[in-house]
Amino acid sequence: MASVIHSDPEVLGGTPVFVGTRVPLKTLIDYLEADRPLAEFLDDFPSVSRDQAVRALEQAKEALLAEMPSRR
Questions:
Q1: Quick one: pLDDT at residue 72?
Q2: What is the mean pLDDT of the chain?
Q3: Which of 51, 71, 64, 46 shows the shortest CA–CA distance to 4?
Q4: Cβ atoms within 10 A of the Cβ of 31, count?
Q5: Among 13, 36, 69, 72, who pairs with 31 as Cys (CB 3.0-4.6 Å)?
Q6: Phi and psi (nearest 5°) for 59?
């Protein structure tokens, strides 16, 4: 699955953003941390699709789980 997050030094100084936008991934995380619904984020940032947001969260989850030591 291709990443929906992109980092380019020419775009917001290399801040990870949603592909095809200038919307930082951190903005989505900030919304969720503030207990704001995904729908509100999507309304406020229409250049990010629901699929992109969900896939970004899935990819972040996979990356975090891959870094965790497995417990047996």
A1: 54
A2: 92
A3: 51
A4: 18
A5: 36
A6: -65, -40
Mean pLDDT, rounded, for 54-67 = 91
Strand partners, 24: 17
Give residue 1's pLDDT band: very low, low, confident or very high (50, 70, 90).
low
pTM of the model: 0.84
Encoded tokens for 30: 């900030």
CA dist 57 and 12 (Å) reads 21
DSSP letters for the chain: ---SEE--TTSGGG--EETTS--BHHHHHHHHHTT--HHHHHHH-TTS-HHHHHHHHHHHHHHHHHHSPP--
Tokens 């417990």, located at residue: 71
Whole-number Cα distances in Å, 45 to 16, 35, 37 = 15, 17, 13
